[in-house]
């Protein structure tokens, strides 16, 4: 899947999300645990108004637990109801507790009006590739039923009933990443959320190798059996030799190896790595 964002697309996406948000009690936003800051679109703050917000720090199985915990507190301090998840293989039952917490006021209000057991309605939001579809499918355990249009709802929106308590708008809101910051663009490219051609894969691999050797010493060595060094280009050459990743004439094929390095990262083959921490953004 490829996403290309143009100002027109963004404006349309924003407008659609705004419309959908009118129909829901709570926003469930997914971010990638390896880049909990870079994978979050700040425009959503403005769209969200004062709807309660649940934040799923997803793909936590790929990230560094210590850093994930730091980000959990970071976002809780900002008023989010936060839960750390693995949408692919994890237990998603606790998500409902957090959603219930976030919707306490609505639940109380319903009760006061004598409306008992009215399901909470939510919308899933997030940039591409953070696990929105996976979350919906795993949560619904394939038993999900579209509830169809409800009388009085003329927008043609479909709802997926995840449980007696929770209904989701069937189409998640897709947000664009915020590319203005070079570091954010790099992080987004590293997790594979954008078309790789946007950033030079060679540069990507060098930045990644440099980050890994600094922050997760031993990870590159464990993967490729090379001695780690500060000069990432040298390191990339060493990996090429070690892995016999060579061109026809016998020279190191750094282009091919760059792809492999990025792919290994995306597949979690360097172990659990977080690419940023709250301290990077709280100076
Ligand atoms: N390791 C891991 N992979 C995940 C998790 N959630 C989703 N994925 C994978 O991430 C990729 C993108 O997920 P998808 O649900 O299509 O993302 P969407 O674009 O936000 O709908 C897929 O290959 C999923 O299997 C998770 O919690 N852990
Ligand atoms: Mg999807």
Explain the layout of strands and helices:
Layout lengths: L6 H15 L4 E7 L10 H6 L4 E6 L6 H13 L3 E4 L8 H10 L1 H9 L7 E7 L5 H9 L4 E2 L12 E3 L4 E4 L3 E2 L7 H9 L10 H15 L3 H6 L7 H11 L11 H13 L17
Parallel strand pairs: 1-2, 1-4, 2-3, 4-7, 4-8
Antiparallel strand pairs: 5-6, 6-7
Q: What's this, in brief?
A:
By secondary structure, the protein is an alpha/beta fold. The chain has helices at 7-21, 43-48, 65-77, 93-102, 104-112, 132-140, 182-190, 201-215, 219-224, 232-242, 254-266; strands at 26-32, 53-58, 81-84, 120-126, 145-146, 159-161, 166-169, 173-174.
Please provide a written account of the structure.
The protein has 11 helices and 8 strands. The protein starts with 6 loop residues before the first helix and ends in a 17-residue tail after the last helix. Helix 8 packs across helix 10 (232-242) and helix 8 (201-215) packs across helix 11. Helices cover 41% and strands 12% of the residues. It folds into 2 domains: 7-174, Rossmann fold, CATH 3.40.50; 200-281, Conserved Hypothetical Protein Ylqf, Chain: A, domain 2 (Orthogonal Bundle). Strands 1, 2, 3, 4, 5, 6, 7 and 8 form an 8-stranded mixed sheet that branches. The chain is α/β, with parallel strands linked by helices. It binds guanosine-5'-diphosphate and magnesium ion. Magnesium ion is lined by residues 132-133.
């Amino acid at each position: 899947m490829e996403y290309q964002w143009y100002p027109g697309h963004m404006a349309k996406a924003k407008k659609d999300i705004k419309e959908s948000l009118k129909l829901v009690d709570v926003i469930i936003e997914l971010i990638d645990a390896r880049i909990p800051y870079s994978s979050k679109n700040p425009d959503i703050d403005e769209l969200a108004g004062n709807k309660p917000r649940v934040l799923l720090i997803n793909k936590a199985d790929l990230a560094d637990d210590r850093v994930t915990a730091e980000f959990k507190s970071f976002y809780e301090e900002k008023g989010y109801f936060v839960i750390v998840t693995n949408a692919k293989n994890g237990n998603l039952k606790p998500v409902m507790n957090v959603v219930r917490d976030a919707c306490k006021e609505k639940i109380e209000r319903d009760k006061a009006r004598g409306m008992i057991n009215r399901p909470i309605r939510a919308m899933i939001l997030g940039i591409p590739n953070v696990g929105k579809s996976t979350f919906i499918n795993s949560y619904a355990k394939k038993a999900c039923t579209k509830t169809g249009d409800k009388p009085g709802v003329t927008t043609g929106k479909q709802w997926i009933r995840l449980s007696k308590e929770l209904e989701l708008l069937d189409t998640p809101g897709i947000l664009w990443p915020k590319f203005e910051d070079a570091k954010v663009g790099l992080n987004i490219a590293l997790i594979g959320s954008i078309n790789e051609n946007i950033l030079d894969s060679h540069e990507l691999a060098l930045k990644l190798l440099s980050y890994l050797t600094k922050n997760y010493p031993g990870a590159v060595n464990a993967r490729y059996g090379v001695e780690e060094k500060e000069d990432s280009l040298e390191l990339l050459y060493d990996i090429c030799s070690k892995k016999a990743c060579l061109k026809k004439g016998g020279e190191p094929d750094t282009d091919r190896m760059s792809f492999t390095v990025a792919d290994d990262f995306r597949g979690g083959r360097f172990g659990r790595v977080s690419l940023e921490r709250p301290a990077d953004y709280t100076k």
